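Section 5.1 Outputs to date
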Amino acid sequence: MNYFCNCSEFQKRTDGNILHLFEQVAQLKEILGQGHGCQDCKINKKMLEDAIQKADQYKKDLEDFKQRMKVKISKEIGVRGDLSENINDPCRETELLKMYEILKNQTWKQTKERILSGNFKHFFELGAQIIKETFNTSEEDMLARIMKIKEAIMILPTSEESKENKLVSQKLSDDMETAIKNLQKRFSSCSMDLYRELATKILTIPKLQIHRGHFDLFRDFTAECYKVSCLMTLHIPPLQPSWEFHTSGESNNQDKILFPAILNSKLLIVKAEFYPM
């Protein structure tokens, strides 16, 4: 796998220092091998000892840095998709956020322009309802599927067995993660016809009261919305939609949220967007 890493510059610089010192050590050893116990030899010997000591210190500093970064990344990697990502994964966090931006700025805009040309009243209120209903329904669907995977894979050992079989527990956890990633890949490659069928079920909910003439337009948008929501829920860790306000000045606008904020392990990564009144 290919990953982004933020410590490569430090390692490159330190490796250069170590290489320079080893070259210096080699030169000093060659000089000392030709010496005869003169004062210059004593000076060269002291320089050799200093160079070896510096090289050892650089190596130690580099290893300490690597260990610190390993701990930092292990704590943050779950909530910072930009810190370390598999760039070969089409469903990595940055790609999913791009899909969400396209949903908001392109797909929604096209739907809005086509429907508002008919002077449709309460368009934004209905759009907000559809988006929230779609995200909630999709999330419930994916969580139910994840639960079935857990039931199939996670045969939980007793607490005593857990202490003695950490490798077994880790293997089960890895299998669980792999299964969820495979499910995400399947939903990523599904035909949009599947998502249109799922969208149809949402749009026929009586409380939405979709006008027959607008049904097809809303269905295409809802299908895209369902797909993005599916992939976000199946991300590890999940990218969760939130209709709660997270920044100052938003408390009075909670009822006007069009697109929800996106959280990653309680970290706000995308702010909510509101519709005009």
